[in-house]
Model the fold of this input.
Amino acid sequence: MFWADSTVQDIEKRFSEKAASGAPIVVRDEKTASGRVHVGSLRGVAIHGIIAEILAGKGIAAKYLFEINDFDPMDGIPAYLDQEKYAPYLGKPLCDIPSPDGAAANFAEYYAQEFIGVIKEIGFDPEFYRSSEVYRSGRYNGCIKAALESAGAIREIYKRVSGSVRDDSWLPVQMICEKCGKVSTTKALSFDGSMVAYVCSDLEWTKGCGYKGAGSPFDGHAKLPWKVEWAAKFKVIGVDVEGAGKDHSTKGGSRDVAEAIAREVFATEPPFNIPYEFFHVNGRKMSSSKGAGSSSREMADLLPPQILRLLLLQKVPQRVIDFVPDGDTVPILYDGYDKLAKSYFAHAPGDDSRVFSLVHFPAIASLLAERFLPRFSEVAYLVQMPHIDVVAEVEKQKGSALTEGDKAEIALRRSYAKRWLDAYAPEDYKFDIQAALPAQAASLSAIQKEALGKVLGYVRSQSALDGQGLHTALHDIRKSMGIEPKDYFEAIYLSFLGKPSGPKAGWFLSVLDKAFVEQRLSEASAIARPS
Ligand SMILES: [Zn+2]
Done:
Protein backbone atom coordinates (compact mmCIF):
# COMPACT_ATOMS: atom_id res chain seq x y z
CA MET A 1 0.00 0.00 0.00
CA PHE A 2 1.26 3.51 -0.80
CA TRP A 3 2.68 5.05 2.38
CA ALA A 4 0.23 7.97 2.45
CA ASP A 5 -2.76 5.62 2.24
CA SER A 6 -1.53 3.57 5.17
CA THR A 7 -0.76 6.75 7.14
CA VAL A 8 -4.32 7.93 6.49
CA GLN A 9 -5.64 4.60 7.79
CA ASP A 10 -3.76 5.19 11.04
CA ILE A 11 -5.12 8.75 11.23
CA GLU A 12 -8.67 7.50 10.65
CA LYS A 13 -8.23 5.01 13.48
CA ARG A 14 -7.04 7.66 15.92
CA PHE A 15 -9.66 10.22 14.96
CA SER A 16 -12.57 7.89 14.21
CA GLU A 17 -14.94 9.76 16.52
CA LYS A 18 -14.04 13.16 15.16
CA ALA A 19 -14.32 11.91 11.58
CA ALA A 20 -17.76 10.46 12.35
CA SER A 21 -18.90 13.76 13.87
CA GLY A 22 -18.15 15.58 10.62
CA ALA A 23 -15.77 18.06 12.30
CA PRO A 24 -12.71 18.57 10.10
CA ILE A 25 -9.44 16.80 10.90
CA VAL A 26 -6.90 19.64 11.09
CA VAL A 27 -3.60 19.04 9.30
CA ARG A 28 -0.93 21.69 9.85
CA ASP A 29 2.48 22.64 8.50
CA GLU A 30 4.50 25.84 8.64
CA LYS A 31 7.48 27.63 7.24
CA THR A 32 9.43 30.50 8.75
CA ALA A 33 9.67 33.19 6.09
CA SER A 34 13.27 34.15 6.80
CA GLY A 35 14.45 34.17 3.19
CA ARG A 36 14.15 32.39 -0.14
CA VAL A 37 12.61 29.02 0.65
CA HIS A 38 14.66 25.90 -0.08
CA VAL A 39 13.01 23.15 -2.14
CA GLY A 40 13.36 20.83 0.88
CA SER A 41 10.56 22.73 2.61
CA LEU A 42 8.21 21.46 -0.08
CA ARG A 43 8.54 17.95 1.36
CA GLY A 44 6.51 18.89 4.42
CA VAL A 45 4.04 20.81 2.25
CA ALA A 46 3.53 17.73 0.07
CA ILE A 47 3.33 15.17 2.89
CA HIS A 48 0.67 17.18 4.74
CA GLY A 49 -1.05 18.12 1.50
CA ILE A 50 -1.44 14.57 0.25
CA ILE A 51 -2.78 13.42 3.63
CA ALA A 52 -5.43 16.15 3.51
CA GLU A 53 -6.27 15.26 -0.11
CA ILE A 54 -6.61 11.55 0.62
CA LEU A 55 -8.82 12.23 3.66
CA ALA A 56 -11.04 14.50 1.57
CA GLY A 57 -11.09 11.89 -1.21
CA LYS A 58 -12.52 9.40 1.30
CA GLY A 59 -15.27 11.83 2.25
CA ILE A 60 -13.66 12.71 5.60
CA ALA A 61 -13.72 16.43 6.38
CA ALA A 62 -10.17 17.77 6.53
CA LYS A 63 -8.66 21.20 6.83
CA TYR A 64 -5.09 21.87 5.76
CA LEU A 65 -3.66 24.90 7.54
CA PHE A 66 -0.31 26.36 6.58
CA GLU A 67 1.36 28.90 8.81
CA ILE A 68 3.64 31.55 7.42
CA ASN A 69 5.77 32.09 10.48
CA ASP A 70 6.50 35.81 10.33
CA PHE A 71 6.87 36.43 14.07
CA ASP A 72 10.19 34.67 14.53
CA PRO A 73 13.15 37.03 14.77
CA MET A 74 15.68 37.44 11.97
CA ASP A 75 18.65 35.52 13.34
CA GLY A 76 20.85 35.72 10.27
CA ILE A 77 20.97 37.63 7.01
CA PRO A 78 20.64 35.57 3.82
CA ALA A 79 23.89 35.68 1.80
CA TYR A 80 22.15 37.25 -1.23
CA LEU A 81 21.04 40.36 0.70
CA ASP A 82 22.95 43.52 1.54
CA GLN A 83 24.50 42.59 4.90
CA GLU A 84 25.03 46.16 6.02
CA LYS A 85 21.50 47.21 5.19
CA TYR A 86 19.90 44.38 7.18
CA ALA A 87 22.29 44.23 10.17
CA PRO A 88 20.20 46.73 12.22
CA TYR A 89 17.16 44.45 11.91
CA LEU A 90 18.80 41.35 13.38
CA GLY A 91 16.74 40.22 16.36
CA LYS A 92 13.49 41.85 15.19
CA PRO A 93 10.36 39.87 14.24
CA LEU A 94 10.39 39.16 10.50
CA CYS A 95 7.06 40.90 10.04
CA ASP A 96 8.58 44.14 11.40
CA ILE A 97 11.43 44.26 8.85
CA PRO A 98 11.09 46.03 5.50
CA SER A 99 10.70 43.97 2.33
CA PRO A 100 13.77 43.68 0.08
CA ASP A 101 11.77 45.03 -2.86
CA GLY A 102 10.06 47.81 -0.91
CA ALA A 103 6.73 46.65 -2.33
CA ALA A 104 5.67 43.64 -0.24
CA ALA A 105 4.09 44.40 3.15
CA ASN A 106 7.21 43.27 5.01
CA PHE A 107 10.27 41.02 4.83
CA ALA A 108 8.42 37.81 5.67
CA GLU A 109 5.63 38.56 3.24
CA TYR A 110 8.08 39.08 0.37
CA TYR A 111 9.47 35.53 0.68
CA ALA A 112 6.13 34.04 1.72
CA GLN A 113 4.45 35.20 -1.48
CA GLU A 114 7.00 33.41 -3.67
CA PHE A 115 6.62 30.21 -1.65
CA ILE A 116 2.82 30.38 -1.62
CA GLY A 117 2.95 30.73 -5.42
CA VAL A 118 4.96 27.52 -5.71
CA ILE A 119 2.70 25.62 -3.30
CA LYS A 120 -0.31 26.55 -5.43
CA GLU A 121 1.46 25.67 -8.68
CA ILE A 122 2.08 22.13 -7.50
CA GLY A 123 -1.57 21.74 -6.68
CA PHE A 124 -1.74 22.05 -2.90
CA ASP A 125 -4.40 24.28 -1.51
CA PRO A 126 -3.89 24.94 2.19
CA GLU A 127 -5.52 27.77 4.10
CA PHE A 128 -2.64 30.17 4.84
CA TYR A 129 -2.40 32.16 8.05
CA ARG A 130 0.29 34.28 9.70
CA SER A 131 1.86 33.68 13.08
CA SER A 132 1.76 37.43 13.80
CA GLU A 133 -2.03 37.45 13.38
CA VAL A 134 -2.47 34.72 15.96
CA TYR A 135 -0.30 36.59 18.47
CA ARG A 136 -1.80 40.04 17.82
CA SER A 137 -5.38 38.78 17.91
CA GLY A 138 -4.77 37.56 21.45
CA ARG A 139 -5.43 33.90 20.66
CA TYR A 140 -2.20 32.87 22.38
CA ASN A 141 -2.88 34.94 25.53
CA GLY A 142 -4.19 31.96 27.48
CA CYS A 143 -1.12 29.88 26.67
CA ILE A 144 1.23 32.78 27.41
CA LYS A 145 -0.33 33.19 30.84
CA ALA A 146 -0.30 29.43 31.51
CA ALA A 147 3.34 29.18 30.41
CA LEU A 148 4.41 32.06 32.66
CA GLU A 149 2.51 30.60 35.60
CA SER A 150 4.08 27.18 34.93
CA ALA A 151 7.62 28.41 34.31
CA GLY A 152 9.04 25.95 36.82
CA ALA A 153 7.23 23.01 35.19
CA ILE A 154 8.49 24.07 31.75
CA ARG A 155 12.08 24.33 33.00
CA GLU A 156 11.67 20.85 34.50
CA ILE A 157 10.36 19.47 31.16
CA TYR A 158 13.32 20.96 29.25
CA LYS A 159 15.67 19.28 31.69
CA ARG A 160 13.88 15.92 31.87
CA VAL A 161 13.16 15.53 28.15
CA SER A 162 16.10 17.18 26.43
CA GLY A 163 18.66 17.52 29.21
CA SER A 164 18.92 21.26 28.73
CA VAL A 165 19.14 23.27 31.92
CA ARG A 166 17.57 26.74 32.28
CA ASP A 167 18.46 28.74 35.36
CA ASP A 168 15.78 29.24 38.01
CA SER A 169 15.05 32.79 36.91
CA TRP A 170 14.34 31.83 33.28
CA LEU A 171 10.82 32.63 32.12
CA PRO A 172 9.22 31.13 28.99
CA VAL A 173 8.53 34.40 27.19
CA GLN A 174 10.41 36.95 25.14
CA MET A 175 9.10 40.47 25.24
CA ILE A 176 9.31 42.66 22.17
CA CYS A 177 11.37 45.61 23.38
CA GLU A 178 9.06 48.62 23.39
CA LYS A 179 12.01 50.87 22.68
CA CYS A 180 13.98 49.12 19.89
CA GLY A 181 11.45 46.54 18.66
CA LYS A 182 13.82 43.58 18.99
CA VAL A 183 12.70 40.29 20.50
CA SER A 184 15.94 38.28 20.60
CA THR A 185 17.68 40.76 22.90
CA THR A 186 15.18 40.82 25.74
CA LYS A 187 15.29 38.75 28.89
CA ALA A 188 12.19 38.46 31.05
CA LEU A 189 12.93 39.11 34.72
CA SER A 190 9.61 38.59 36.46
CA PHE A 191 5.87 38.20 35.92
CA ASP A 192 3.33 39.66 38.33
CA GLY A 193 0.23 38.11 36.75
CA SER A 194 -0.27 40.85 34.18
CA MET A 195 3.08 42.54 33.42
CA VAL A 196 6.49 41.16 32.55
CA ALA A 197 9.58 43.08 33.65
CA TYR A 198 12.43 42.74 31.18
CA VAL A 199 15.78 44.08 30.10
CA CYS A 200 17.10 44.55 26.55
CA SER A 201 20.82 43.82 26.28
CA ASP A 202 23.54 42.96 23.77
CA LEU A 203 23.88 39.48 22.32
CA GLU A 204 26.95 38.13 20.53
CA TRP A 205 25.25 38.57 17.16
CA THR A 206 23.14 41.68 17.64
CA LYS A 207 22.95 44.69 19.93
CA GLY A 208 20.22 45.43 22.46
CA CYS A 209 19.25 48.98 23.41
CA GLY A 210 19.74 48.71 27.19
CA TYR A 211 16.09 49.48 27.97
CA LYS A 212 14.72 48.16 31.21
CA GLY A 213 11.02 48.25 31.87
CA ALA A 214 7.80 46.27 32.10
CA GLY A 215 4.91 45.59 29.78
CA SER A 216 2.03 43.30 28.99
CA PRO A 217 3.11 40.06 27.30
CA PHE A 218 -0.28 39.68 25.62
CA ASP A 219 -1.78 40.61 22.24
CA GLY A 220 1.45 40.39 20.28
CA HIS A 221 3.77 42.21 22.68
CA ALA A 222 5.78 39.07 23.40
CA LYS A 223 6.65 35.76 21.84
CA LEU A 224 6.87 32.29 23.34
CA PRO A 225 10.17 30.39 22.98
CA TRP A 226 9.64 28.18 20.00
CA LYS A 227 9.23 24.76 21.67
CA VAL A 228 6.62 26.30 23.99
CA GLU A 229 5.11 28.12 21.02
CA TRP A 230 4.87 24.83 19.11
CA ALA A 231 2.89 23.31 21.98
CA ALA A 232 0.68 26.42 22.08
CA LYS A 233 -0.01 25.99 18.36
CA PHE A 234 -1.13 22.39 18.90
CA LYS A 235 -3.69 23.67 21.40
CA VAL A 236 -4.82 27.00 19.98
CA ILE A 237 -4.98 25.94 16.34
CA GLY A 238 -6.44 22.56 17.34
CA VAL A 239 -3.97 20.51 15.33
CA ASP A 240 -4.75 16.82 14.75
CA VAL A 241 -2.01 15.87 12.29
CA GLU A 242 1.41 17.48 12.03
CA GLY A 243 4.63 15.86 10.88
CA ALA A 244 8.08 17.18 11.62
CA GLY A 245 11.44 17.04 9.93
CA LYS A 246 14.13 14.70 11.15
CA ASP A 247 16.06 17.51 12.85
CA HIS A 248 13.13 18.02 15.24
CA SER A 249 12.16 14.37 15.64
CA THR A 250 15.17 12.87 17.42
CA LYS A 251 14.70 11.45 20.91
CA GLY A 252 14.73 14.33 23.38
CA GLY A 253 14.49 16.75 20.46
CA SER A 254 12.20 19.72 20.09
CA ARG A 255 9.16 17.63 19.15
CA ASP A 256 9.43 15.59 22.34
CA VAL A 257 9.77 18.78 24.39
CA ALA A 258 6.78 20.41 22.66
CA GLU A 259 4.64 17.29 23.18
CA ALA A 260 5.46 17.15 26.88
CA ILE A 261 4.61 20.85 27.28
CA ALA A 262 1.36 20.35 25.36
CA ARG A 263 0.27 17.51 27.65
CA GLU A 264 1.57 18.76 30.98
CA VAL A 265 1.17 22.53 30.72
CA PHE A 266 -1.56 23.13 28.15
CA ALA A 267 -3.53 19.94 28.88
CA THR A 268 -3.82 19.06 25.23
CA GLU A 269 -2.99 15.85 23.38
CA PRO A 270 -0.28 16.51 20.76
CA PRO A 271 -1.11 15.78 17.12
CA PHE A 272 -0.46 12.62 15.16
CA ASN A 273 3.17 12.83 14.06
CA ILE A 274 4.69 11.94 10.71
CA PRO A 275 8.45 12.26 11.14
CA TYR A 276 10.16 12.80 7.82
CA GLU A 277 13.71 12.73 6.53
CA PHE A 278 15.75 15.39 4.83
CA PHE A 279 15.66 16.48 1.22
CA HIS A 280 19.24 16.73 0.01
CA VAL A 281 20.27 18.79 -2.97
CA ASN A 282 23.68 17.78 -4.31
CA GLY A 283 24.21 15.69 -1.18
CA ARG A 284 23.68 18.64 1.13
CA LYS A 285 21.05 19.15 3.76
CA MET A 286 18.59 21.90 3.06
CA SER A 287 19.83 25.35 3.80
CA SER A 288 17.71 28.38 3.17
CA SER A 289 20.55 30.87 3.31
CA LYS A 290 22.77 29.37 0.59
CA GLY A 291 20.46 30.50 -2.18
CA ALA A 292 21.06 29.77 -5.84
CA GLY A 293 20.15 26.52 -7.47
CA SER A 294 17.98 24.94 -4.82
CA SER A 295 15.12 27.27 -3.99
CA SER A 296 11.58 25.97 -4.30
CA ARG A 297 10.95 28.58 -7.01
CA GLU A 298 13.90 27.35 -9.08
CA MET A 299 12.76 23.72 -8.76
CA ALA A 300 9.22 24.62 -9.79
CA ASP A 301 10.71 26.27 -12.89
CA LEU A 302 12.87 23.24 -13.64
CA LEU A 303 10.19 20.54 -13.27
CA PRO A 304 6.53 20.43 -14.31
CA PRO A 305 4.16 20.13 -11.33
CA GLN A 306 3.42 16.41 -11.75
CA ILE A 307 7.13 15.55 -11.82
CA LEU A 308 7.91 17.75 -8.82
CA ARG A 309 5.03 16.15 -6.90
CA LEU A 310 6.37 12.73 -7.84
CA LEU A 311 9.82 13.68 -6.52
CA LEU A 312 8.28 14.87 -3.25
CA LEU A 313 5.85 12.02 -2.71
CA GLN A 314 7.20 8.78 -4.14
CA LYS A 315 9.58 7.96 -1.30
CA VAL A 316 8.38 6.98 2.16
CA PRO A 317 8.91 9.92 4.53
CA GLN A 318 11.52 7.91 6.47
CA ARG A 319 13.89 7.93 3.50
CA VAL A 320 16.11 10.79 2.39
CA ILE A 321 15.35 12.39 -0.98
CA ASP A 322 18.56 12.98 -2.93
CA PHE A 323 18.18 15.46 -5.70
CA VAL A 324 21.06 16.22 -8.02
CA PRO A 325 19.78 18.67 -10.63
CA ASP A 326 22.95 18.51 -12.70
CA GLY A 327 23.22 14.71 -12.62
CA ASP A 328 20.94 11.90 -13.81
CA THR A 329 18.18 12.71 -11.32
CA VAL A 330 15.95 14.57 -13.74
CA PRO A 331 15.94 12.02 -16.62
CA ILE A 332 15.50 9.21 -14.05
CA LEU A 333 12.50 11.02 -12.55
CA TYR A 334 10.82 11.16 -15.95
CA ASP A 335 11.62 7.48 -16.57
CA GLY A 336 10.02 6.71 -13.21
CA TYR A 337 6.96 8.74 -14.16
CA ASP A 338 6.70 6.83 -17.47
CA LYS A 339 6.84 3.52 -15.63
CA LEU A 340 3.98 4.57 -13.34
CA ALA A 341 2.04 5.80 -16.38
CA LYS A 342 2.36 2.40 -18.04
CA SER A 343 0.70 0.72 -15.05
CA TYR A 344 -1.97 3.39 -14.82
CA PHE A 345 -2.80 3.33 -18.53
CA ALA A 346 -3.02 -0.49 -18.36
CA HIS A 347 -5.43 -0.19 -15.39
CA ALA A 348 -3.04 -2.29 -13.32
CA PRO A 349 -3.92 -2.28 -9.63
CA GLY A 350 -1.20 -1.38 -7.13
CA ASP A 351 0.98 1.41 -5.85
CA ASP A 352 2.31 2.52 -9.25
CA SER A 353 -1.14 3.38 -10.56
CA ARG A 354 -2.11 4.92 -7.23
CA VAL A 355 0.93 7.23 -7.13
CA PHE A 356 0.38 8.22 -10.75
CA SER A 357 -3.17 9.29 -9.99
CA LEU A 358 -2.09 11.19 -6.85
CA VAL A 359 0.56 13.30 -8.58
CA HIS A 360 -2.11 14.66 -10.96
CA PHE A 361 -4.18 17.16 -9.04
CA PRO A 362 -7.52 18.35 -10.46
CA ALA A 363 -6.06 21.19 -12.58
CA ILE A 364 -3.86 18.74 -14.49
CA ALA A 365 -6.17 15.73 -14.43
CA SER A 366 -6.18 15.75 -18.25
CA LEU A 367 -2.70 14.22 -18.00
CA LEU A 368 -4.28 11.04 -16.68
CA ALA A 369 -5.43 10.30 -20.23
CA GLU A 370 -3.37 7.73 -22.07
CA ARG A 371 -0.72 9.17 -24.35
CA PHE A 372 2.64 8.31 -25.88
CA LEU A 373 5.50 9.32 -23.58
CA PRO A 374 8.82 9.88 -25.38
CA ARG A 375 11.80 9.31 -23.10
CA PHE A 376 12.91 12.59 -21.57
CA SER A 377 16.59 11.84 -22.16
CA GLU A 378 15.89 11.28 -25.87
CA VAL A 379 13.86 14.47 -26.12
CA ALA A 380 16.80 16.23 -24.45
CA TYR A 381 19.04 14.98 -27.25
CA LEU A 382 16.56 15.73 -30.01
CA VAL A 383 16.10 19.36 -28.98
CA GLN A 384 19.83 19.84 -29.47
CA MET A 385 19.62 18.88 -33.13
CA PRO A 386 18.35 21.94 -34.93
CA HIS A 387 17.57 20.15 -38.19
CA ILE A 388 15.40 17.53 -36.47
CA ASP A 389 11.62 17.70 -36.41
CA VAL A 390 11.10 16.41 -32.88
CA VAL A 391 7.39 15.75 -33.41
CA ALA A 392 8.02 13.72 -36.59
CA GLU A 393 10.79 11.81 -34.84
CA VAL A 394 8.53 10.87 -31.91
CA GLU A 395 5.80 9.88 -34.36
CA LYS A 396 8.29 7.49 -35.98
CA GLN A 397 9.04 6.00 -32.57
CA LYS A 398 5.39 5.60 -31.78
CA GLY A 399 4.70 4.01 -35.15
CA SER A 400 1.28 5.62 -35.56
CA ALA A 401 -0.31 9.05 -35.81
CA LEU A 402 0.13 11.33 -32.80
CA THR A 403 -2.91 12.37 -30.82
CA GLU A 404 -3.41 15.88 -29.41
CA GLY A 405 -2.39 14.50 -26.00
CA ASP A 406 0.82 13.04 -27.47
CA LYS A 407 1.66 16.40 -29.05
CA ALA A 408 1.02 18.29 -25.82
CA GLU A 409 3.32 15.91 -23.97
CA ILE A 410 6.06 16.39 -26.58
CA ALA A 411 5.72 20.17 -26.27
CA LEU A 412 5.93 19.94 -22.48
CA ARG A 413 9.01 17.71 -22.50
CA ARG A 414 10.73 19.83 -25.14
CA SER A 415 10.23 22.96 -23.11
CA TYR A 416 11.39 21.41 -19.80
CA ALA A 417 14.31 19.62 -21.49
CA LYS A 418 15.53 22.98 -22.80
CA ARG A 419 15.30 24.55 -19.36
CA TRP A 420 17.17 21.64 -17.82
CA LEU A 421 19.88 21.72 -20.50
CA ASP A 422 20.33 25.47 -20.09
CA ALA A 423 20.47 25.48 -16.32
CA TYR A 424 21.82 22.18 -15.07
CA ALA A 425 22.27 19.25 -17.46
CA PRO A 426 25.53 17.34 -17.15
CA GLU A 427 28.00 17.38 -20.06
CA ASP A 428 27.05 13.78 -20.95
CA TYR A 429 23.65 15.00 -22.06
CA LYS A 430 24.88 17.96 -24.05
CA PHE A 431 26.32 17.90 -27.50
CA ASP A 432 26.85 19.86 -30.67
CA ILE A 433 26.90 18.05 -33.96
CA GLN A 434 30.05 19.30 -35.63
CA ALA A 435 29.47 20.79 -39.06
CA ALA A 436 32.89 19.63 -40.27
CA LEU A 437 34.96 16.59 -39.32
CA PRO A 438 36.32 17.45 -35.85
CA ALA A 439 40.07 17.77 -35.47
CA GLN A 440 39.95 15.09 -32.75
CA ALA A 441 39.13 12.52 -35.45
CA ALA A 442 42.74 12.76 -36.61
CA SER A 443 43.74 10.72 -33.56
CA LEU A 444 41.67 7.68 -34.56
CA SER A 445 43.61 4.41 -34.76
CA ALA A 446 43.61 2.09 -37.75
CA ILE A 447 41.14 -0.33 -36.15
CA GLN A 448 38.83 2.52 -35.16
CA LYS A 449 38.85 3.78 -38.76
CA GLU A 450 38.26 0.29 -40.07
CA ALA A 451 35.26 -0.02 -37.75
CA LEU A 452 33.84 3.28 -39.02
CA GLY A 453 34.29 1.97 -42.56
CA LYS A 454 32.18 -1.08 -41.70
CA VAL A 455 29.50 1.10 -40.14
CA LEU A 456 29.52 3.15 -43.35
CA GLY A 457 29.04 -0.07 -45.34
CA TYR A 458 25.98 -0.95 -43.27
CA VAL A 459 24.48 2.55 -43.55
CA ARG A 460 24.93 2.54 -47.33
CA SER A 461 23.24 -0.87 -47.57
CA GLN A 462 20.05 0.48 -45.97
CA SER A 463 17.42 2.51 -47.76
CA ALA A 464 16.50 4.25 -44.47
CA LEU A 465 17.87 4.10 -40.94
CA ASP A 466 15.92 3.06 -37.90
CA GLY A 467 17.23 3.23 -34.33
CA GLN A 468 16.72 -0.40 -33.33
CA GLY A 469 18.14 -1.83 -36.58
CA LEU A 470 21.18 0.40 -36.42
CA HIS A 471 21.69 -0.41 -32.74
CA THR A 472 21.80 -4.15 -33.52
CA ALA A 473 24.05 -3.65 -36.54
CA LEU A 474 26.53 -1.52 -34.56
CA HIS A 475 26.88 -4.24 -31.94
CA ASP A 476 27.23 -6.99 -34.58
CA ILE A 477 30.03 -5.05 -36.29
CA ARG A 478 31.81 -4.49 -32.98
CA LYS A 479 31.65 -8.14 -32.03
CA SER A 480 32.82 -9.33 -35.44
CA MET A 481 35.88 -7.09 -35.18
CA GLY A 482 36.70 -7.78 -31.54
CA ILE A 483 37.28 -4.03 -30.92
CA GLU A 484 36.84 -2.73 -27.37
CA PRO A 485 33.43 -1.07 -26.86
CA LYS A 486 35.08 2.07 -25.51
CA ASP A 487 37.33 2.49 -28.56
CA TYR A 488 34.50 1.69 -30.92
CA PHE A 489 31.91 4.13 -29.62
CA GLU A 490 34.53 6.79 -28.97
CA ALA A 491 35.37 6.66 -32.70
CA ILE A 492 31.73 7.36 -33.54
CA TYR A 493 31.32 10.20 -31.02
CA LEU A 494 34.62 11.85 -31.89
CA SER A 495 33.69 11.87 -35.56
CA PHE A 496 30.33 13.53 -35.06
CA LEU A 497 30.58 15.43 -31.77
CA GLY A 498 34.28 16.03 -31.24
CA LYS A 499 34.03 14.48 -27.77
CA PRO A 500 34.46 10.90 -26.57
CA SER A 501 30.92 10.25 -25.31
CA GLY A 502 27.36 10.95 -26.35
CA PRO A 503 23.82 9.58 -26.58
CA LYS A 504 22.98 5.95 -27.44
CA ALA A 505 24.84 5.60 -30.75
CA GLY A 506 22.39 3.61 -32.86
CA TRP A 507 19.49 5.84 -32.03
CA PHE A 508 21.61 8.97 -32.33
CA LEU A 509 22.91 8.19 -35.84
CA SER A 510 19.46 7.06 -37.00
CA VAL A 511 17.93 10.47 -36.40
CA LEU A 512 20.63 12.31 -38.35
CA ASP A 513 20.34 12.92 -42.08
CA LYS A 514 21.44 9.70 -43.81
CA ALA A 515 23.56 11.41 -46.46
CA PHE A 516 25.28 13.45 -43.75
CA VAL A 517 26.07 10.28 -41.77
CA GLU A 518 27.54 8.61 -44.89
CA GLN A 519 29.65 11.66 -45.74
CA ARG A 520 31.04 11.96 -42.20
CA LEU A 521 31.78 8.23 -41.80
CA SER A 522 33.53 8.22 -45.14
CA GLU A 523 35.70 11.21 -44.16
CA ALA A 524 36.49 9.86 -40.70
CA SER A 525 37.34 6.34 -41.86
CA ALA A 526 39.63 7.68 -44.58
CA ILE A 527 41.37 10.42 -42.61
CA ALA A 528 45.13 10.13 -42.51
CA ARG A 529 46.84 10.41 -39.15
CA PRO A 530 49.25 13.32 -39.02
CA SER A 531 52.75 11.95 -39.18
ZN1 LIG B 1 15.59 47.25 23.10
In short: The longest helix spans residues 404-423.
